[in-house]
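Entry 12.
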Amino acid sequence: MVANGDKLVVTKKVAEFLNEGDIVKVTEVANNGDSIAFAFGEDFRHMGLMSSTECEEHFKKIETQTITQEHIDDIISDSDIDVYTVFDKCTIVACKLPNGFVIVESSACVDPENYDEKLGFDICMNKIKDKVWELEGYILQETLSAEDCDCCCGDCNCEDCNYYEEDEEFDECLDTDLDCDECEDYNCEFNTNKNRR
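Predicted 3D structure (tokens):
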């Protein structure tokens, strides 16, 4: 059951406006959970409404604020892994993650007589798992920092906040039934009426 403020990830494309991997925020749960309002888009300014059935079919709740061993194991088990032995003493492991990103690690010994491909593979896989932990941690941190951002454009590093505020005022002006040329606000910089006073 989702609640206000929950973040959901799109698991199956929704109409033309939400693609797999997009994040939405639940803004209201009504009718005993049967009706769910959500915000979406880069800055969560767009609104949508779905049923609990649509939610189950198209969305997955982002459950945790930590990376688990199970999550890492799932990623590794869904990955393509190739193992190579080179120069009779070096193991190279290439791991293609489910999203297509590739991690390559190696392990070698000095004397080929001591070479053990299985041992080299285990060492490489431990390095790859550590790298996946690091990458997944980065993604989670990025998601959590975006949730805490109250900036008008949804980017805490935005240096153009005034631009976005002005843009909002401009949008409000255009939301009326008047074209700029018909607008009676002759001081508006967007008014191109030739009879402007």
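Annotation: The helical segments are 52-58, 69-77, 117-147, 161-174. The chain is about 30% helix and 25% strand.
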